[in-house]
Design a protein that fits this description.
Mean pLDDT: 79
Low-confidence stretches: 1-20
Largest sheet: none
Number of strands: 0
Number of domains: 1
Strand content: under 5%
Radius of gyration: 24 Å
Shape: extended
Structural class: mainly alpha
Helix content: 55-70%
Length: 189
């Protein structure tokens, strides 16, 4: 009977009383053992066209809804980038001041992903995704009706939270109905 070596576990007992696995490993040894692990496995890649043909109508619709939501999210984010000069004139501010609105969006995406991720874990993805999209539409419209620089920054901050929440739910909604055999790397790039 073969005795295979058990995989390393940080909680396992040392093989020898004086052997302490990685606890006292030198930096050089650590790097030498980790660099080879960075090379990805060279598994045979399946043809993505053949895999996409396996999707049924419902799976395509889930993917397209999520893709459209994510695309609209990106479109609205970049509308501010493309209109920085006009917004600076409207609010009588510098272009640097206006780009703080972009920075706020990017900074608060993680807050949105946490909020809407927890909501999706608690109530499922459907209703948080719908609420997130409605919030997103309201904030898109509100950006156009901002009458002061402070309101612009406030709306963009809330938009960042909505943007962060949308991506996770959109990605999960797009991938939830895919077959086990399809590797989602083909669809997300």
């Amino acid at each position: 009977m073969d005795h295979e070596k058990e995989p390393y576990s940080p909680h396992s007992e040392p093989l020898h009383p004086h052997q302490h696995h990685d606890a006292h490993m030198s930096v050089g040894r650590y790097i030498a053992t980790r660099i080879p692990s960075l090379k990805p496995p060279m598994a045979k890649v399946q043809n993505p066209i053949r895999l996409l043909r396996l999707l049924n109508f419902q799976q395509w619709m889930f993917f397209l809804v999520a893709f459209c939501a994510w695309s609209w999210d990106a479109f609205d984010f970049f509308t501010v980038s493309l209109t920085v000069e006009n917004l600076a004139e409207t609010f009588n501010r510098t272009k640097t001041d206006i780009t703080w609105g972009i920075t706020l969006v990017l900074m608060l995406r993680s807050v949105g992903s946490i909020i809407f991720g927890l909501a999706a874990d608690r109530w499922g993805r459907k209703w948080p995704f719908i609420v997130n999209n409605v919030l997103f539409i309201i904030l898109e419209l509100a950006t156009g009706f901002c009458s002061s620089y402070k309101s612009f920054l406030g709306v963009r901050a809330l938009f960042g939270i909505a943007m962060g929440g949308l991506y996770g739910n959109a990605a999960a909604t797009g991938m939830v109905w895919l077959e086990i055999c399809i590797d989602s790397r083909y669809l997300t790039g």
